[in-house]
Amino acid sequence: MTTGQRDSRTAVDKALALLRAFGDEVTTGVGVSELARRTELSKSTAFRLLGILERNGAVERAGSNYRLGPMIHDLPTPESAPEIDMLRDVLTPFLSILYEQSRQTVHLAVLQGTDVVYLNKLHGFHRVPSPSRIGGRVPAYCTGIGKAMLAYDPVLIDQVCSSELPAITPHTITDPDKLRRQLARVKEQGIAFDFEEVRRGLNCVAAPVMSPTHTPVAGLSISGPVGKFDPRRWATPLRQISFEASKVYAAQLRARRQRAATTVKTA
To answer: Which of 91, 191, 223, 257 is the one with CA 20 to 30 A from 98?
Structure first.
C-alpha cells in the first residue's frame, strides 16, 4: 500500500491480516511494530486490534511480543495421515500408563521439521499454563520432548543451531554450542529435560520412541509444576516405558508390512 493511499480494509480484514502475519512465529511471538510492518497498518491501529484479539483469546502476550492465543489453538485440526494415526493409536496406551503413574500432564508428539507437533495430551491434576495443544507446534529446541527426538538427527541439529534461538523464557537455551552439548548428552542418556525453557514454572522430562532402525518416530513426556514435580525422578520409569513402547511400535510396523506384502501377492 503506497503512502497516502486510503486503507479500504475492514476491521475484520485487518484483524485477520494480523493473525496471518505471525507466520512461523506463532509460539515465539512477534512485536507490535513488526506486525504493523507486515500488515501495512499503523502501529496504533495494530496495537488497538491486538488488544481486541487478546481480550477474545485469539492472541496472548509473550513478554513484549504477541503470539497466537488459546482460542486459535483450540480450533479443530484436519484429519491426519495414516502413519500419524497409527502412532497415536499404538502409543496412546503408553501415554495413559505415564499419566496413571505420575498424575502429571503427559504428551505424545512427533518431530516435523524443527518443530514438535503434539498428537495427544492428558492433563495432570496440577495444571500449569502450557503452550502445548493437540495438533499444535512448538520449537523443538526449547522443549524436552523436542530435544529427545532432535538429538538423533545431525542435519536438523545443524539447521537449528545455525538459526536464531529466541528466548521463550529467561531459561531458554539460546547458545548454539550449549544446545549442541546438551543434545549430545540426550543422545547418550536417552532422556531429555526442559527446566522452565518453554514456560516459566513448568519442568519436563522426555524420552524418544525408537524405530527398528534406532531413529525416533515419536516422543513421550511428563510435565509438571516447579516445586511439585521433580523430572529427574521420572527419568528411569520414562526410559522403560519408552523402551516398551518402541517394542510394540516395531511389532505393529512388522505386522503392517506383512499385511501389505500379503495384499500385493494376492492382488
So the answer is: 257
